[in-house]
Amino acid sequence: MNVVASTVFIGLFVFITILGFASAHWRKGDMAHLHEWGLGGRRFGAWISWFLIGGDLYTAYTFIAVPALVFGAGALGFFALPYTVVVYPMVFAILPRLWVVARKHNYVTASDFVAGRFNSPALALAIAVTGIVATMPYIALQLVGIQVVIGGLGFPTHGFVGELPLIIAFTVLAVFTYTSGLRAPASIAVVKDLLVYITIIAMIVIIPIKMGGFGNIFAAIPKDHLLLPPVKDGNTGMISFYTTLAFGSALALMFYPHATTAVLAAKGPNTLRRNWVFLPAYSFLLGLIAMLGYVAYASGIDKLPELAPYFAQYKAQFAMPGLLLHFFPSWFVGVGFAAVAIGALVPAAIMSIAAANLFTRNIYKAYIKPDCTIQQETSMAKTFSLVVKFGALMFILFLPLTYAIQLQLLGGILILQTLPAIVSGIYTRWFDSKALLLGWAIGLGWGIWAASLTGFQKSAYALHIGGMVIPAYIGLYALIINLVVAVLANVAIRKLGMGNNADATVAADYVG
User: Is the residue at 26 inside a domain?
Assistant: First the structure.
């Protein structure tokens, strides 16, 4: 066991635990109300929102998986960069309007908005269930980051003793989320982001110096790792897949429940706009994180005797932790590993709160107990947040990790099918809820079928058109099918006079 690194790691973990519990008293509100517990009272300013949204979207799995993908697959791993750039113009246009109407009608979730806008509890239920199902494996994957760094510290990784640190970490997460709600991850996100920036900047500066500069690093990378394969024989190959994966991932990112939860917690639309002006700083950081995959490849750390056992167990996922262990003193290893572990707790907390909000508002209150009191509603949300975290923990302890990864691949495909209902509702009432529900069902079904063709191992589908083969992101193809079906069905429904124009909102609700 690395005693020094473990001591620093545990010390920082204890600090954020105390901070998580203390957060209940920060900007104190009546925690018996769901908008106070689940949205922080909608009072987070620009800087706190910046840390919260950044900590929410750039997760521990990002720090582990992006370098691992670049380490193993090369240039394809950099798809994460354009999609985090493309997403900001879209959120500027869409999410401030959602915030305004949600505030005026006390909507806590995107499904609340869909239910009011289209007068359709069924469509809202479909959006809510999709969000919960897509979020569960995402929470489980945050545990991967914690598992990797705990193993890297030298703790046992098998049996109850090996699982105990993970159980302790998620128990702490469960308790401070239950008591402090969204305020806990918001305050911890500040610490998490500072640790991440310090760690990544130190790694991207110091390691290349020790390796003789970036020239030596890139000289050691094979050409097929540096570039995507060219288009040939009518097959657009990785070029079309890379492009559609980046664009589709950007569309999905906005509408994950944890993303909309962080957005709705902001103080106002101008707070969000100022926030998104500075959020590309995370995209710059993500580029540095991705570059670590090349650094790890060039350094050959997977072949070092002292690190080979870790790579045998964790494969490419140990690329970033391996660099820390090999090039830095033990005390800094503790700081870097704590950044990864805390980077898991922040998004996991927000995800569990988002899933709890969806279940409580759009399933429990809508179908199970419509007459529940404000206190009962919030109590159910707190309880369900525990259930979600416990389910994610059981998933990672008792099922193969590949299941969580496969389900997460499906997550983006599923979330994209909620986009037509939410985005169209923000701008127009032309669609009928029945048409949107039909489009959602067919897009979802086709996406799951297409993913099943690869054994849920890959997210590309090769479309054959007139001698051309166009591999592209399954989620984007499914979204196109969803939209086409919804438009055609809507035209038919309107012509048959079966449309439902009831709407709980008015045009003035979207201006603020």
Answer: no
Q: Classify residue 457 by its DSSP letter.
A: S
Residues near 302 by beta carbon (within 8 Å), at least 6 away in sequence:
296, 308, 311, 318, 319, 322
Q: Look up the pTM and report it.
A: 0.91
Distance CA 467, CA 470 (A): 10
Position 399 confidence tier, pLDDT thresholds 50, 70, 90: low
pLDDT digits (tens, 9 = 90+) for 138-165: 887 787 778 888 888 888 767 666 677 7
Whole-number pLDDT of residue 85: 84
Q: 26: helix, coil or strand?
A: coil
Q: What is the mean pLDDT of the chain?
A: 88
Say if CB 110 and CB 99 are below 8 A apart: no
Q: How many domains does the chain have?
A: 1
User: What does the pLDDT look like over 298-349, one tens digit per residue?
Assistant: 999 989 888 888 888 878 888 999 999 999 999 999 999 999 888 888 888 8
Which tokens sit at 28? 């104190």
> Residue 215's domain spans which residues?
3-21+31-230+243-510
CB 332 within 8 A of CB 202: yes
Query: 236 in a domain, yes or no?
Result: no
DSSP for 260-287?
A: HHHHHTBS-HHHHHHHHHHTHHHHHHHH
- The DSSP letter of residue 473 is E
120 Cα distance to chain centroid: 27
Residues 6+ apart with CB under 8 A from 485: 435, 438, 439, 442, 443
CA of 176: how far to CAs of 20, 249, 287, 431, 456, in Å? 6, 31, 32, 42, 35
Report the CATH number that the domain containing residue 314 is assigned in CATH: 1.20.1730.10
Q: What angle do CA 201, 205, 207 make, to 5 degrees?
A: 115
Residues 321 and 340: beta-carbon distance below 8 Å: yes
DSSP annotation of 33: S
- Residue 238 inside a domain? The answer is no
In a domain? residue 287 = yes
Residue 400 CA, distance from chain mean position: 21
